[in-house]
Amino acid sequence: MNHYDLTSDEAEVFFEEANELLESLDRDLVGLEKSGDDATLHRIFRAIHTLKGAAGSVGHDSMALLAHAAESLLEKVRNHESSVSTQMANVLFQVVENLRIFLDDVLADRPAQVDVAALIEDVSALMGMAQNVASDVASDSPPDQMLSHLPTVDDSGFVVIEDGLKSGLNLLVVYAEADMTGIAPLARLLQMYMHLEQVAQIIVSSPTGDALEQGQGAGNLAAVVMTDMVRSELEAELSNIFEIAAFQVADLSSAPQLLRPQEEKSGEVLPVAGETTETLLDDEQIVERPMEAAPQRETSPALRTVRTSVERLDNLMNLAGELVTNRNRLFNIYEELSHLLDEEQRTSLNDTITHMSSVTDQIHDEIFKARMQPIEFIFNKFPRFVRQICQEMGKDVALVVTGQETEVDRSVIEQIGDPILHLVRNGIDHGIETVAERLAAGKAAQGQLSLNARSEEGNIVVSIADDGRGVDAEKVKNKAVALGLITQEESMQLSYHEAIDLIFAPGLSTATEISGISGRGVGMDVVRNNVQRLSGSVVVHSVPGQGTSFELRLPLTLAIIPTLLVEVGSQVFALPLPNVTEIFKLDPATIQYVRGRETAYIRGGVLPLVRLAHLFEEDMAALDDFTERSKKGAEKGAGGDEAGAYVVSLSYRDVQMGVIVSRPLGKQDVVIKALGYPINKVQGLTGATLLGDGRIGLIIDISALISMATEANAIQSHRLAKA
């Protein structure tokens, strides 16, 4: 790259790692403002320090200076010289935003686009400093007394220093003076030297350890060490050694060139391992270890992992899908040709296909696991988002996040962020009341918004719930009537649940005024459309005065799913296997009618029935996908010839339903392919798949199927009338 010291491939890795740190900073800064606990503060400090080092290593000086200023401010907090205020949190959030812009600079290989001088001054003002960072940097240096005793480091020593800095260690210099009035003062210096050997790697010292053992020295010790400790920690380790008149520790991680021989110091020296050419240290600064990766060098787990692009994983998943399709075709070919083979040939071919099937399944499973990642990747952005909205609207809301460890396919994660964002924003804007309104209603002053994720029946379920005012059904109905979405007569017949479901209608908003948050009538319809595009569903529940919850149900993956293949006429449908509870042969004598709908009395219970041929007849006929046989079967309706038909019992959430099919074909993992026009307009379908015999199977959307069946009273009556 032209502007930074890394290649294009390295820039992507740099961006990913740094962006992860910034995501964690968004979350932790909100937590720090609320609780101020030391663990959160240490995580923030380490993240900022790591970003500073990374910026220096690629040559982004503006980013390094800004991170250094924030690091110094956090050090004041860590030393209990300052407390976290809302003003400080706001400034730190601005720092994070600017660091994120700087990351884009690196990825786009362009010079810094933002002048952060004003922001650095704000940070400095919070630290009670009158001078700006530029003068502060110029004045930073180890104490003069230590400078005069600094040992020089040869080239081999600098190789060790550079490797240590790159791996996250700190470069510290220790200077100590023995109390010459004490007993055996040089022995005290030897004691300090031996203690240093236990906690650090000594690069060079003056005098050496051997000299101290032989009683040689002038009463002082200067040592250059590499350690994962920070300056304050090393000072604490050495402070319990008696009869030491004075000692100092300085951090030269940013200025290792000070250790070069005098004649070399006047020349230009490039920064080593992640810091800018400026010296960023003073007598008061403490630099935390940059990241928790340092201890990992011993176990070296990083050597057993590798980063790869999402595109490569997508390609692997597509290839795995092709393997699954061809595996299924091989099974069909085997069935067709097995009668032509002798016993030995059949056994050999069957064993080979079975082994290949097992390997295919393992390949698919491993690629699927590689694509899975915790949903906290999405959830991490919301603590800061909620804080910002609450500040803008003057509301007090606590965000409770659970289930963030739930894993989902990356392709799903990338597409559900915006729907969740809309729902969180609407929960705060429309749902949760102001403090005054909550107190007047007898509620706690602080509202609560919960964000939860869980795995259920092969799906991921994300719920967004608030304890606010709930949905005003009358207000929604009046708005829908005013927009012409429904008539006044229709609104009077709607149940509460049906009324609040109108909030998903395009253009409908109950906000009294337009703001930067919401009120333009866009968003909720987009939420439902985006979720349905992912073969998912969104359901709203609300209780007036108590709150509202939205539940998003999405598939864990959009690539390959286990299904039960069934045949209706000559058309094959694929039913998601996690929703299938049982299959049984249809006995026409067990069919009864309840309110005009077919039901079956099974084991003491009533199971509602629906015919796939009825639900999809018009759509499939329009596309010429049904044969004459399936058309005739549909026209016969409930009174047709049902000999040989089967019922597949489906379960979705708390709903049980049976679908009548011609015959089941068996279980099969299918590769989901997007539907093209015009079949993508057919309600109740989520995709298609190529079957082993060359036919196209249509994948059923269970939630949409149940909705269609629930609303099918009129449709069923229409079918019966045709019979």
Keywords:
five-stranded mixed beta sheet, Four Helix Bundle (Hemerythrin (Met), subunit A), disordered C terminus, single chain, 723 residues, globular, 5 domains, alpha+beta
Strand content: 15-25%
Structural class: alpha+beta
The first-level CATH class of the largest domain is given as Alpha Beta
Q: Which segments are poorly predicted (pLDDT under 50) over 5 or more consecutive residues? A: 129-141, 263-303, 621-641, 713-723
Number of strands: 22
Main sheet? 6 strands, mixed
Account of the 3D structure:
The protein has 723 residues and is an alpha+beta fold. The protein has 5 domains: 8-131, HPT domain (Four Helix Bundle (Hemerythrin (Met), subunit A), Up-down Bundle); 146-270, Alpha-Beta Plaits (2-Layer Sandwich), CATH 3.30.70; 310-371, Helix Hairpins (Orthogonal Bundle); 374-555, 2-Layer Sandwich (Heat Shock Protein 90), CATH 3.30.565.10; 560-722, SH3 type barrels (Roll). It has a 6-stranded mixed β-sheet. α3 packs antiparallel against α4 (86-108), α3 (61-78) runs parallel beside α5 and α14 runs antiparallel to α15. It is globular, with a radius of gyration of 34 Å. The model is unreliable at 129-141, 263-303, 621-641 and 713-723 (pLDDT under 50).
